[in-house]
């Protein structure tokens, strides 16, 4: 019998070979010169059905996005196989009487007629308005903002932490509220779409508007259709139109609980086929969100980790916890079962990584070199432990989360403690519960110092576990100070030089059209004192 290590190396060789073959399928960033061009297109219906969006606020620039799709659920969005000219404008006022930047960009059918504009040369730390024009069609007006200058003294940063918006499982009431907030940006930490349909008992929206088209997504047209389906929601459009977004991703943008080049949710899917599915998913994700041109996916994957600054007050790192991770531990059953496993020796193997060595070193170097007060880390899941002990001494852990990569977690938190890096706050999602927790290099050991704070936002719509189960987890893990899994919502954070304040906004599951949001809990972290405090 082949040893596990030899089998793993053989699988990696096979996946690498197929990844190289995908180079031929890469969508070119430059438009196809042989395609016809429409400089002054005419549309019988509105081509801006999917709205507009902005993202990646820098001191002198933002990314602007839209997609031409007069028939968004039709093949090619109802667009011809031609390059179509789009004008873009950035103005100081909503009436566009003081236009600061403008230009023309070509919407390419190879990119589903989506465009992204790097609007630079802007003044730091102010609000801007933007729009697109295609022929005689005018897009909605978007509102965005640039970050303060990197060395600017800043009084405060306001942001929303959100994730997990399963369309079938609820209405986007939270996104409607987010659209009306006075914040600087939205930090979205994953599961922007869901690749898979939910069980009928969890489906909340009506069949006509709520069911995912095509069920499980496999092809590029299917992933494009899924993104368009979500983007047609008026509340999601409003949240994008109102604020710039900074994005991380998790698993459902591709496949539930996938790891690197392995799709563990599809244990019957051949590795080469999963690599193709992942490439289609990455391409559609890039086409539908305000991402930079240099994030164009290719045969090596797609860069998602990034760094942002907010004057001298805060620095934010966004991490990719999917693309570079090792396959989940304790997976000896050979098939997907949610990765709730009895603890095995593999969980504590020192080589196991969720981030990969290059990304982890990049983060550690950034943290060690930062001179800003607050160091915020946006990543996709809960870092604090939440396993359940059994009477025989074993522990039931979720190996798809940080509990399955325990040594890397200990190493990262140990690095923060050893270097005396103050005011580190982890911001996550994925687990469908509001969490406030303290982080130690030795979790649960009260003799170990608290070195960082953690906030996890519950899902916007996706179902969570029963609160009775969550209460058991809370009692078994003393570093978790607060946990509610029976609500949906988001977190709103306000950061100042003296403290970080967090409000958990929530409504009950399922989220219905008439649901009301409420403040569930509030916390604060004092500068120089790690660990959340209530109130």
TrEMBL record:
InterPro entries: Metallo-depent_PP-like, PhoD-like_MPP, PhoD-like_sf, PhoD_N, Phospholipid_Metab_Enz. It comes from the Bacteria. Gene3D superfamilies: PhoD-like phosphatase, Purple acid phosphatase-like, N-terminal. Residues 159-500 form the PhoD-like phosphatase metallophosphatase domain. Residues 50-146 form the Phospholipase D N-terminal domain. It holds the Pfam family PhoD. CDD domains: MPP_PhoD. SUPFAM superfamilies: Metallo-dependent phosphatases. PANTHER family: ALKALINE PHOSPHATASE FAMILY PROTEIN (AFU_ORTHOLOGUE AFUA_5G03860) (PTHR43606:SF2), PHOSPHATASE, PUTATIVE (AFU_ORTHOLOGUE AFUA_6G08710)-RELATED (PTHR43606). This is Alkaline phosphatase. It comes from Sphaerotilus natans subsp. natans DSM 6575. The lineage of its organism: Bacteria, Pseudomonadati, Pseudomonadota, Betaproteobacteria, Burkholderiales.
């Amino acid at each position: 019998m082949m040893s596990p290590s030899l089998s793993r190396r053989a699988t990696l060789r096979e996946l690498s070979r197929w990844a190289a073959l995908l180079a031929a399928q890469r969508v070119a960033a430059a438009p196809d010169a042989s395609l016809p061009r429409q400089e002054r297109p005419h549309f019988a219906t509105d081509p801006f059905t999917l709205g507009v969006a902005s993202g990646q606020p820098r001191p002198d620039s933002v990314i602007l996005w839209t997609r031409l799709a007069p028939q968004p659920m039709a093949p090619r969005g109802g667009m011809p196989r031609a390059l179509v000219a789009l004008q873009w404008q950035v103005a100081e006022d909503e009436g566009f009487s003081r236009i600061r930047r403008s230009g023309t960009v070509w919407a390419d059918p190879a990119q589903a007629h989506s465009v992204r504009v790097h609007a630079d040369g802007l003044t730091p730390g102010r609000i801007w308005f933007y729009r697109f024009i295609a022929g005689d069609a005018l897009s909605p007006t978007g509102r965005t903002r640039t970050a303060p200058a990197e060395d600017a003294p800043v009084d405060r940063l306001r942001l929303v932490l959100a994730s997990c918006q399963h369309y079938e499982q609820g209405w986007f009431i939270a996104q409607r509220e987010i659209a009306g907030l006075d914040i600087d940006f939205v930090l979205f930490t994953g599961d922007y779409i869901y690749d898979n349909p939910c069980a009928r008992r969890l489906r909340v929206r009506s069949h006509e508007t709520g069911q995912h088209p095509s069920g499980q997504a496999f092809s590029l047209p299917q992933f494009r259709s899924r993104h368009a389906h979500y983007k047609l929601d008026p509340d999601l459009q409003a949240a994008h139109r109102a604020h710039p977004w900074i994005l991380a991703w998790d698993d459902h943008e591709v496949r539930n609980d996938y790891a690197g080049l392995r799709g563990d949710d599809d244990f019957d899917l051949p590795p080469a086929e999963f690599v193709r599915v992942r490439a289609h998913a990455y391409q559609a994700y890039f086409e539908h969100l305000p991402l930079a041109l240099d994030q164009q996916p290719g045969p090596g994957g797609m860069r998602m980790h990034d760094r942002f600054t907010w004057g001298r007050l805060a620095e934010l790192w966004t991490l990719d916890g999917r693309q570079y991770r090792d396959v989940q531990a304790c997976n000896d059953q050979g098939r997907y079962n949610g990765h709730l496993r009895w603890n095995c020796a593999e969980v504590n193997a020192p080589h196991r990584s969720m981030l990969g060595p290059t990304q982890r070193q990049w983060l550690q170097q950034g943290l060690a070199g930062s001179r800003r007060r607050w160091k915020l880390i946006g990543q996709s899941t809960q870092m604090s432990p939440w396993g359940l002990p059994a009477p025989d001494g074993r522990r039931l852990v979720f190996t798809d989360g940080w509990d399955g990569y325990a040594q890397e977690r200990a190493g990262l938190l140990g690095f923060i403690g050893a270097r005396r890096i103050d005011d580190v706050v982890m911001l996550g999602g994925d687990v469908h519960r509001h969490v406030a927790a303290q982080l130690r290099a030795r979790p649960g050991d009260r003799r170990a110092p608290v070195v960082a704070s953690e906030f996890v936002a519950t899902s916007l719509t996706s179902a969570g576990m029963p609160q009775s189960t969550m209460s058991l987890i809370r009692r078994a893990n003393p570093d978790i100070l607060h946990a509610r899994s029976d609500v949906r919502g988001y977190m709103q954070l306000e950061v100042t030089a003296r403290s970080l304040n967090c409000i958990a906004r929530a409504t009950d599951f399922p989220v219905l059209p008439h649901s009301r949001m409420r403040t569930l809990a509030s916390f604060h972290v004092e500068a120089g004192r790690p660990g959340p405090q209530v109130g």
